Write a sequence for this structure.
């Protein structure tokens, strides 16, 4: 059975500690009343008194069926989650002395990643004594960012963390829809 993480987050009925509350609800005029009066109104409407804004002065309570209230909250959360765009971070690794062919190959991949709406984390990994070439690594990353200027913007300039110098680039069109890989149409059978 799935745990209900929303249940227990809100005080209902006798759990509400305030002396006065502001009540709202369907067919109820918003007003400030004593807790006893609010509970009586909730009972008359055959509903629950649910504290929806405990930090307000006085706390805001809604007269609604608690299970209906939880259902509405879950529905809102589901809608918000559906609207979220998931952004993946793709990594591209360079050495401090990467040659032009490898650089262009990785640049082509980075352009595809940015077009698909993914962020790119490019880094130069310094192995052993190659840390002496950290200026070369920084120049390489800045050149990489400059070549991708048309497709993305730099979130963070090159930073050296241990043996890695990293730069983050995000797509210019925020939330670009992900391309689904299209299936190839089947070849017609029996035709020759």
């Amino acid at each position: 059975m799935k745990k209900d993480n929303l249940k227990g987050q809100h005080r209902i009925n006798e759990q509400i500690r305030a002396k006065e509350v502001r009540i709202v609800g369907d067919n109820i005029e918003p007003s400030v009343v004593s807790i006893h009066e609010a509970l009586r109104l909730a009972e008359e409407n055959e509903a629950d008194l649910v504290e929806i804004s405990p930090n307000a002065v006085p706390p805001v309570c809604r007269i609604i069926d608690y299970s209906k209230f939880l259902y509405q909250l879950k529905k809102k959360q589901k809608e918000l989650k559906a609207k979220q765009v998931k952004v993946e971070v793709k990594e591209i690794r360079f050495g401090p002395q990467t040659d032009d062919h490898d650089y262009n190959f990785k640049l082509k991949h980075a352009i595809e990643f940015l077009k698909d709406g993914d962020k790119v984390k490019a880094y130069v990994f310094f192995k052993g004594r190659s840390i002496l070439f950290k200026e070369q690594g920084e120049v390489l990353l800045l050149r990489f960012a400059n070549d991708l200027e048309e497709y993305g913007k730099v979130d963070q300039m090159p930073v050296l963390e241990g043996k890695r110098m990293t730069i983050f680039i995000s797509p210019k069109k925020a939330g670009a829809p992900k391309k689904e890989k299209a299936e190839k149409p089947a070849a017609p059978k029996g035709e020759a």
Observations:
- The two ends are 57 Å apart (CA to CA).
- The chain has a mean pLDDT of 80.
- The chain has two domains: 13-80, 89-171.
- The longest strand covers residues 152-161.
